[in-house]
Structures are given as structure tokens and as C-alpha cells.
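Recall the central idea of this unit: under ordinary conditions, the amino acid sequence of a chain determines the structure it adopts. In this exercise we apply that idea directly, starting from the sequence alone.
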Amino acid sequence: MNKSKKTLFLFSVAIVIQIGLLFSFLIKREFHIRRGTKIIVKTVPVDPRSLFRGDYIHLNYEFSRIDLAEVTSSKEHFYRGDKIFVKLTKRGEEWRPVETGASPFKDIASGEVMIRGAVTGHQWLWHGRGERRHKSSVLNVSYGIESYFVPEGEGKYIEDQISQKRVKVELSIDRGGYASVCRIFIDGKEVRFQ
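Accordingly, the structure predicted from this sequence is:
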């Protein structure tokens, strides 16, 4: 094999490997979406001036802010950048955080899911009065499901609905705690893009 044929062969192999890797990521993601546990969660409004940027909407969830005084935690303090696992349980129609930890939970019961995230910041919150006054850490957590791409020009309507608290999101969460946004609902009706 001469040098130019060898170079062309190696170049072709490199391209096939890259395409294969791209498709493997897409297939893996689709597999996790289809096989994951589906939950419906409410979104909460964020600053409307930065809500819609370009061709995606910014989503925020009730469990994106966790007061460690209100949940069981295997770790007293989390810091920015720490990996965090959050156990959510269904109470009525809401999914609420009930436990946090630095490693995956092994005891996930029926009606519970584990979601994996990263701490993006924390504040101190004071509770009680007088001698009973104490502080707890309130975490801001990102789960990788805060942005959802939409067709160009479709985001303004959803932006308005989020600010009116009428939007719910279906998440698919796999056994490892990785979450993906599946569908968006406004007043119980799925948003279908043209």
C-alpha cells in the first residue's frame, strides 16, 4: 500500500470512528429516555429578562433549590462544583426532595427516584428566633435539564406560560440518576412544535 492510499485509509477510519461515536451517544441517550422512569414536574419562574435566549428556554424546578434543614443528608456541607444525588418522592402531584448525598442511593423505593446533579452555589438561611435561632445551607443545584431547545420563534409563548406557573415538564431519569427532558405541557396539553 503506497503512502497516499494508507493516508486515505487512516483518514476514512478516523471519520467512521467519529460518526460511530456520535451515533452511539445519540442511541445511548434515546435508550435512557425510553427506559428511564418518567415523572412530571412543575417549573418555577426565573428572571423573565433572561428566560428565553436564542432558540432554547431556561427551565427551573422546585427541587433546584434545596434547604438541607428540610431533608435528610449524608453530608453536612456541599460546596460549589460538588456532585450531589437527590432522592425525590412523590407527595400528591409534586416531586419533593427528601434526601441528599454525595454518592448514589441504593435504597430507592416505589414512588421515589434519584436524580444526579451538581451544586452551583449555596446560601445560608436563618431559622427560628432567639436562642433557637440556627442556620442551614440552601443549595442551588443544576441537573443538566435546565435548557430545552425549541424551534426558532417558538419560545416566547412558553416563556409567558412559565411566568404564569402553567408549565410542567416530563423527565426521564435512568437508574444512574441522569435526567432528560422528554416533553413540555401547558395546562396539561403537550406542546407540539411545528
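The chain has two helices and 13 strands.
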